[in-house]
Amino acid sequence: MSFLRSGLAAALLGTILTGGAAAGQVAPASSTPGDAVDPFIGTGGEGHTFPGAVAPFGMVQLSPDTDTSCVIRTCYGHAAGYRYDDPTIEGFSHTHFSGAGHSDLGDVLVMPVAGDTVAMDPGTPAAPGYRSRFRHATEVARPGYYAVTLDGPQVRAEMTAGTRIGVHRYRFPRGKAAHLVVDLRSSLYNYPGKILWSGLHLRADGVLTGFRETRGWAPGRKLFFAMRFSAPLVGHALVNRETDVPYKGFQGPGRGSDALAEKLGRAMEARLDFGTLDAPLEVKVGLSGVDEAGALANLDAEPGNFDAVMQRTQAGWNTALGAIDFEAEGPMRRIFATALYHSLIAPSVWSDDDGRYRGPDDQVHQASGFTMRSTFSLWDTFRAEHPLLTLIQPERTTTDIVRSLVASQQHSPDGILPVWQFAGRETWTMIGYHAVPVIADAYMKGIGGFDAEAALQAMVASADHAAYGGLGEYMRRGYVPIDKEPEAASKTVEYAYDDWAIAQMARRLGKTDIAARFEKRAGNWRNSFDAKSGWLRARLSNGAFRTPFDPTAINYGSDYTEGNAWQYSWFVPQDQAGLFRLLGGDAKAIAKLDAMFNYDNSKLDYSHAEDIAGLIGQYIHGNEPSHHVAYLYSYAGAPWRTQERLRQIVASQYGATPAGLSGNDDLGQMSAWLVFTALGFYPVAPGSNEYVIGRPFLSRATIALPGGKRFAIRTDNLSDANPYIQAITLNGKPLTRSYLRDDEIRQGGELHVTMGPRPDPAWGKARGSRPFSQSTTAR
Prior knowledge:
The protein contains 18 helices and 38 strands. By secondary structure, the chain is α+β, with helices and mostly antiparallel strands. The protein has a domain at 46-319: Beta-galactosidase, Chain A, domain 5, CATH 2.70.98. It has a 9-stranded antiparallel beta sheet. A 6-stranded mixed beta sheet has the order 19-33-34-38-35-36. The radius of gyration is 26 Å and the shape is globular. Residues 751-779 are annotated as: Disordered. This is GH92 family glycosyl hydrolase.
């Protein structure tokens, strides 16, 4: 990724802001919000997004898988199933992560086959079985729709999705027999023994139902499906390809009286024969985490054929994307629209249409008055993804998210909030208890519809769970000791921030004893900060800092989580002013920030660290610990320096191509960063009800708010030649501070920004004009 620090960055920014030859032709004005979205952005490089069909926050993500043959550590590049530079498609499966740094899912793979011979194995790109070559020229992707021509069978394949259903449409060559292969063996993040048990059940009415239980990233995950066809079957085969002893645990449904055929095993496939067809074959698939009956009910809850489902979903996307109406020049139009799209895919719906869902205790529960959500990549998404949803999806999605998090805690065998959860199952991936700031941020912004007392109780229970991640040591010592717990330096500062978020909500609720306790814990970041060296460092149980110490070292399981001292020494979002005092004041903090961005990495090798991508010096935009750092100049009274850095980051880390994300999107966090930054402000400390002003990258934007209110951002003189704010007004009055309050946005109004070629060092310099810090701000 060394090109990100080359002269290309400056040229690219001019292309992003103004269009031009490097960008190709400027796209015409869109007729609907979805027209500007390009789902292929992020499908190459390290973006890990998928191009397939999904409804906003939908349970189903119906997308092509180009390769599922990887095993464990080799799966990183195929975490979403699809990789843009692969030459073949193995099939179309129904569940995918959008931009995760880990792979799993890829459930219920379907592949059309034409002709007299049906291969039952995918084969390899060099020797394909049912796998097929394809060309990007035949692909079409837009919100709620994907299509491609499969060169092998000469089938035109189209995909759309509803909330809990996926719909396929296949146009087979005239005169050739049409078949489908349904492969329950296929999965992302494969290894021997992943499929614990599975089953296929062909019913008398021609509906195929089934299930599988997997032991992958999430242990013991169960998924059920129901599949209905627009043409009758003329033949079929249900095949178990396993050769070892059957699993004796979860057995799935037994044979029903309506069964034409049923087979259970750990390597299940179906061959479905339809003869020659005069019309396209439509395949409608419902999913459920509860049972086959739930999958059938979900199938029936979203009626209509392919076109009807597609039209509903595209209308849903236009409504969701229409929450921000904007104007932008050149590639930024596609980049921003797609970032907004990627921000609206997760957390995905998990409960069935009747409200039932499978919880982290593997039991079935009933959601009453809300839709259960899952797919929580909280270490990533608490930073910008969830704060964005509080603005553009506050009334339903954010309330559902909070209620889902609390319900998960109440069902959890461990009694804590989700850490990294999907399909109702906990993976225990990453660190912190970052469901806490998601809940606190929503509550502090006045978003209701949930039991705040129960939410606070769940937050405190998580923060006091001594068995989790060194929390017992943290509560006893005020820091996590590295000789007792790995990644101790990172855990200490992330726990301290989460504790501050608990204190914010507790004080608002009048729980002064809880607030005081967690406000004290929020200062624990100081216990791992070495004031003499100016670095956050891991300490031993005896109080000494661990040696030897190298601030550039990145090793998994060491002092830091997916980073090093350069990134983590800035993680005190609740008290950046306190950190800057320890660093020696504003000038020294600014100098250290500059040193981070300007660091010469030429002698460093981070190839062993998958998530370390998008480097600008020691700033690593492809991973989350750096995401707030460019905004920290404002805490030192130099917001014009933030404006410079944002220009550098946007130019080098985002593009309107498949490789347009410098790192994996992490369920919308990379994209939400861009959405906020392009609007002109960013939530450095969720829970503070403040946004630090950066600089806009859109000429105009309007956020639609509840009650018909609108908050508009209007930018004059936006161009590469004008990177600095010259003047800024809020509702016609000069704004002298470098932050916006959440209530100022929610009540509606206009932020008017004038850009120019020279910085204004005086703006935002006064201490009273700087953003929130716990130790200096009384507001």
